[in-house]
User: Fold this.
Amino acid sequence: MVKNDLSISKVIGYAFVSELFLILLQFIYMAYYEMTNPGVKLNFDLEYMSHVGFFIFQIVGLFVFTIIGYLIFRRSAEKKFKKVFTYLIAGGIIELVFYLVATEFEAAYIYSILDKAVAIAFAGILYWTSQSKDVRAIKN
Assistant:
């Protein structure tokens, strides 16, 4: 392992922080909605998760996982695929546990986790296309 390389435990930590950020956004949205709509109490029921919560995990999660995935690709000297795959699996497990604990699980929630795989693929594309520009600049 290269001295400044990311460890697997750091990658898992990134997944944990990424998913906690998405969960925190859920609570911030709920607090804001309840503050602007007096008398309304939101909770992680099926209706909230299918209309708002799922999309926060899916859409915001796409951007978060793309950015962190790109940083993992960039900061990893060795075993890049193993690290981003670990990031994807750890994040997916954390999100799945949230779905199982906080709300009624629906099969559609799997799309939110699969969306993270698309984000990782996009991060890889961004990483390799930016690398090829750097290589061309060095040759010229």
